[in-house]
Amino acid sequence: MIITIDGPAAAGKGTLASKLALKYNLTYFDTGMVYRAVGLDVVLQGKDPNDEQSALSVAQKLTFPRIMELSKHQDFRSAVGGDAASKVSAIPSVRAALLQMQRDFALNPQFSDGRKASGVVYDGRDAGTVICPQADVKVFITASSEVRAMRRFKEFQQKGLTITYDEVLAQTRERDERDASRSSAPMKPADDAVIIDTSDMSIDEVYKKVCDIIESHKKILEK
């Protein structure tokens, strides 16, 4: 089974995708990690993530071990990493270089320990429209920019990062604009995706709603 969970930053995709993967014994693929790895690597090299050649050079050499290495860096999940990821992901040549890697994973999904998996839950922005348009279940999670900025702001506070809510809100809106307006694979719901606004929902409420959607799909397949 292939499930795609798409949507903007801080909408709740990661938490939801992880819980679904655990419940249905599927592997979890965070597509954002791929772009965060490229973006952060470019920044660590002292280069501009908006520069196509710099970003493409890193993308073409990216390996899974390098992604895991970069994921341990303090800025991988920070505003710095998120902003860099959004910038490099807006470059068509970078997206093309990384697209096949992500598509191939659906053909041979594996857990992190190398065991073969029966399916995958993708957490991304265009998983249901570009990476796996053949997915069995597609969900698009969203929330207002103010709510998402507050969620991310609280995360940064817990990590001891110095940043104001207004700065996080500005970054959130800027990132939304980039993701939605990029010429290659803009962030948008798939035509057959279920759209869920999580602004006034708890993660448990969202989780239950999506589980109901998946169970309904499974019953259709069993008929």
Question: Largest sheet at a glance?
Answer: 5 strands, parallel
Strand order of the largest sheet: 2-3-1-4-5
Indicate how many domains the architecture comprises: 1
Tell how many strands the DSSP assignment holds. Answer: 5
By secondary-structure content and strand pairing, the structural class works out as alpha/beta
Radius of gyration: 17 Å
CATH topology: Rossmann fold
CATH architectural grouping: 3-Layer(aba) Sandwich
Nearest-integer average pLDDT: 91
Task: List SSEs in N-to-C order.
Answer: EHEHHHHHEHEHHEH
The share of residues in helices is: 55-70%
Note the total helix count. Answer: 10
Question: What is the CATH superfamily?
Answer: P-loop containing nucleotide triphosphate hydrolases
Low-confidence stretches: none
Q: What share of residues are in beta strands?
A: 5-15%
What is the CA-CA span between the terminal residues? Answer: 16 Å
Globular, elongated, flat, extended or rod-shaped: what is the shape? globular
Reading off the top of the CATH hierarchy, the class is best stated as: Alpha Beta
